[in-house]
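Any chance you could type out some protein's one-letter sequence along with its backbone structure tokens so I can compare the two?
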Amino acid sequence: MSQSASSNRPTRFLIISDTHNFQFTDNAGSANPFRLPIPKVDVLLHCGDLTHYGGIDDSYQKALQMLGGIDAELKLVIAGNHDVDLDKTYRKPRLSEEDNREAHKAAIRTMTGPRTAQAGVTYLEEGTYTFTLKNSVTFTVYASPYSPEFDNWAFATGVLDECPSGSAGCENLLHAMKRVRPLMHCFGHIHEGHGAFVMDWAEKEREEIQAGSAQWSQMERDDFDSDGEMENEYPEPTQFGRIIRGQQTLMVNAAIMTGGMAMEPKNAPWIVDLDLARRA
């Protein structure tokens, strides 16, 4: 995410990922941190994996229903590696070629049709988009559903990406991040990596010079990991207004589900306030 030049004003984001068929009705009365009512925000970012295995049992429609219950002016959603029907090239092994094509068309219709509009959702495919909010804040988002090949999942092609099998990040993406240095980078995919920190690119460059091939995961960082333990209210938004634009990037792994076979919605969503530029 990058900024336009102008006067700034606070903008509130709710950042989630890897909801995997999650429904608030299934979570009623639980102590899980992702639950209703959610505070009103300006922008909802869903970083992929709406479903567990595509459109089985109308999973995309159920995901839209869940997102429709969140109060946000703008709701931006991308696919993840589990949203297999949204990947035109993915083939479910038990379906014929024709059935796979039809499943893809149906999924795209759902994510771009009337139900999406009713839920207030904007489905993003890979590309760069610019949005202007009612308060005249303008920002640019580069969206991509792709990740390095990970078992037999969809959208196969650095940081907060450690899982039992090792690091599952994309080195090319990390180099691109270092070059562009956006204000915020949001993602999910690796549930175990849930957390956030501020990447200081200048410090990282000095570390590389001093240590040669230093590992990104070894850098010193401000860690804002949630322990998922809350009472009845959401915590106050995390303030990141101190981020130095062009020098630092807020990295957010927003996976709601925990790692392992259980995959429970016990990771807290991120509510973040950022100062963004108003349209001149």
Remarks:
- The mean pLDDT is 78.
- The domain at 2-277 is CATH 3.60.21.10 (Purple Acid Phosphatase; chain A, domain 2).
- Helices lie at 59-68, 97-112, 114-119, 171-180, 201-211.
